[in-house]
Amino acid sequence: MKHFKGNTLLIELMLVLLFFALSQAIILQVFASAQQTNRTVSIRNAALMQAQNTAEFLAVATTDAETALLSLGYTADSDALFIADHLSEGYQLTAHISRFTQPSGVLTTVTITASQEGHPLFTLPAVRYQGVRLP
Amino acid sequence: MNRKTDYRVGVGASSILMVLVVLALAAMSLLSLSAARNSEALGDRALDMTTNYYQAVSEAQRMLAAMDASLADHASDNPDAATWQALLQAHGIPDVTVAADLSYSFSVNAGAQRMLEVGGRLTPAQPQRYTLTRHQLVNTATAEPQPLQLFQPQPTVTP
Amino acid sequence: MSTRTPALRHSIPTAFIFLLIGLFALMSLMLTLLGTRVYRHIADTSAQNGDSQIVLNYIVNKVRTCDAQDAVRVETHNGFATLCLYEALDGDPYVTYIYAYNGYLWEQFSQVPQPFEPEKGERLTPVLSLAFALTPSGLLQTTIETNAGEAKTVLTALRAVSSGEAK
Asked: What is the domain range of residue A125?
């Protein structure tokens, strides 16, 4: 009988390739998960810095909140809602303005929300009280 | 019989190579995931601290608004510091302290063992009914003493 | 009876074996390169973000701890643009200088009358450049350029400056 030793090697190689492919299917998923996590963290950090800058600007702005947001690059979506698209960086900021008026002054609350592809990342409140002169 | 089976690759070498490569790639993938998770944890903490700070600032602004409303209501009465303190407590801001020179102060919890300390002066007769001269974030974590025993003197033996 | 020579009889399976070995080697190489690239990207991104975040968060938190009337100023000392944080300890005035010097962020804490000497501070973290601008309304703009070449700006409001304005 003639035996072809290559058969053993052939079978071994095929099994090796099979196990290699199965293991890499799992390892590639781990790599993809790490990459996705890293991307989300980078986007959230960038959005947080922009939202902070917006809140700090509003805290000492000499104009009203609407004008201040427009000067920061936001666009008015409605009377009380302003949007800043940072799609190149992967996030969007929305600012919702609400006011509480009392005889001695106005309490303006701007709620800044960051979202990535429609999913909310965080919300930051920016509240400022400005008193008025009384007669 | 003529067996010219001259294989340069022995049986088992490819299996060993496969195991080594899979182990290396698995280690690298776990390191990548660990680095990304660490980065995420740091980002989560930064987000929490920032959010807590802005919530504290918002609460401080609400307290200033309530204080200003009280000042506007009672400015003409020209009350003293103790009366102002009582009036502010009656207006729902019990945490404001008013000193004899009409300087006020209060603290708001900003999370992560930090307090936002706000202070200024009440000037109810002026158009600006109060001034804000202090808006500081203070760390309230207390440092525990950790003495280091560097030298333990041994009892001397007298001859 | 086969007319094939013994060499030819084994050449096709042998070629297939080497083909499989080559395929395995190629896949291993590709996946190793991919994994290395992904890991390097993650490590580099984390390092870059960390460097700039550390500097900006440090400055922002320092300013927030010193936000009092006339306590935060942007001054020039010996040609260096410095952020000066003034405070009083036991009645004595002290100042913390924050500045960029020799490619690093430095901090120096000293008593007010003492002259500013940049090399006597404490070296903190690498930074290419650092710039401060303070508006009359009390908005401090801090711009840093990291060793990676990217510039980032952070705004900090000095709320104690705008003291209880009335319209």
From this structure: 6-131
In a domain, A91, yes or no: yes
Residue B156 lies in a domain: no
User: What letter would DSSP give residue A63?
Assistant: S
Beta bridge partners of C125: C105
Distance to chain C for A72, nearest Cα, Å: 12
B4 touches chain A (CB under 8 A): no
In this prediction, residue C10 carries a pLDDT of 61
Query: Which residues of chain C form beta strands (DSSP E)?
Result: 72-77, 80-89, 92-101, 104-111, 122-126, 129-134, 139-145, 151-157
A65-93 per-position pLDDT tens digit: 999 999 999 999 987 899 999 888 899 99
Residues of B in contact with A31 (CB under 8 A): 29, 32
Is B150 within a domain?
A: no
CA gap C151, C149 in Å, rounded: 7
Residue A12 Cα distances to B149, C13, C155, angstroms: 64, 14, 63
Q: How far is CA B79 from CA B93, B102, B115, in A?
A: 17, 10, 30
Q: Which residue of A has its CA nearest to B19?
A: A20
pLDDT single digits (tens) B109-145: 999 999 999 999 999 888 889 999 999 999 988 766 6
Q: Is residue B126 part of a domain?
A: yes
For the sheet with C80-89, list strands across it: C72-77, C80-89, C92-101, C104-111, C122-126
Confirm whether A121 is domain-assigned.
yes
- Residue A19 and residue B20 in contact, taking contact as beta carbons nearer than 8 Å: no
- pLDDT digits over C27-74, tens only? 889 988 988 998 898 888 888 777 788 889 999 999 999 999 999 999
Its pTM surpasses 0.90: no
Is C158 within 8 Å of C139 (Cβ atoms)? yes
Could you list the residue range(s) of the whole structural domain that residue B88 is in? 39-139
Contact in structure between C160 and B133 (CB atoms under 8 Å): yes
Q: Name the pairing type of β-strands C139-145 and C129-134.
A: antiparallel
Q: Is A22 on the interface with C (CB under 8 A)?
A: no
Task: Identify the pLDDT of residue B7.
Answer: 52
The two structure tokens encoding residue C82: 């410095």
The one-character DSSP state at B8 is S
Asked whether the beta carbons of residue A13 and residue C20 sit closer than 8 angstroms, the reply is yes
Indicate whether A1 belongs to any domain: no
Per DSSP bridges, beta strands C122-126 and C104-111 are antiparallel
